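Margin note: ligand = S-adenosyl-L-homocysteine.
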Amino acid sequence: MKIRLFVDAPLSDGAEVALNEGQAHYLFGVMRLAAGAEVALFNGRDGEFRSVVGHAGKRGGTLICAERKRPLQLPPDLWLLFAPIKKARTDFIVEKAAEMGASRIVPVQTRFTNSERIRQDRLQAHAVEAAEQCGGTYVPEVTDLIQLDRLLADWPSDRRIMWCDETLVTARSALEGATGPWAILIGPEGGFAEPEQARLRSMPQVVPVSLGPRILRADTAAVAAMALWQSLLGDWG
Ligand code: SAH
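Resulting structure:
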């Protein structure tokens, strides 16, 4: 099995990468690698490198970069905006968004959002793990929780928002051919409050889209919306 590891360090031919305790524990304690073993390395910027274990210690170690195997492959310019829900479901949304090719993941606080706090570092770690596992060379940034009103107040004029609106019956035709930067917006379990809906409706960047006649849970809606967007406008070919 090929082991893939995300590191922060710059990667280039011959570069030596120092491992922290957690990485050393994973590679040498859990996966039982020894000096000379191969690990695929990526850092989200420089593509994927073949590397070889130099020193394997209990609390640290080194990997030596050999050659670059794959260039950096960027996802489409698609942000996922979602209202955090219960912990396990929020983790699921972040993992799936990273796998499915979001370029940025933005937890938003809406009127009916239950959680007031998120653990940004934990969610970012989930995005890293998803990239390690799915062969990605890019890791989407997970931002801190931001209030929807504040986010919309500075919204870039050229970035469309695919607003997933369960009250709609119209379909996806509004998306077709609309290339450029996008964001998908998924609401919380309680949906969007009336003033939020009015605000969204008033913005020229917003394109309301239905995901069918059934009301989906927010985590299901996030995956369905990404699949729809990716297949119409993204890199699914
Ligand atoms: N307001 C609803 C539930 C919201 S579902 C209620 O309580 O009855 C959570 C989010 O998933 C919604 O805000 C929306 O963004 C998305 N969603 C769920 N089903 C959808 C559908 N059929 N079409 C579009 N978006 C949907």
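The chain has a mean pLDDT of 95.
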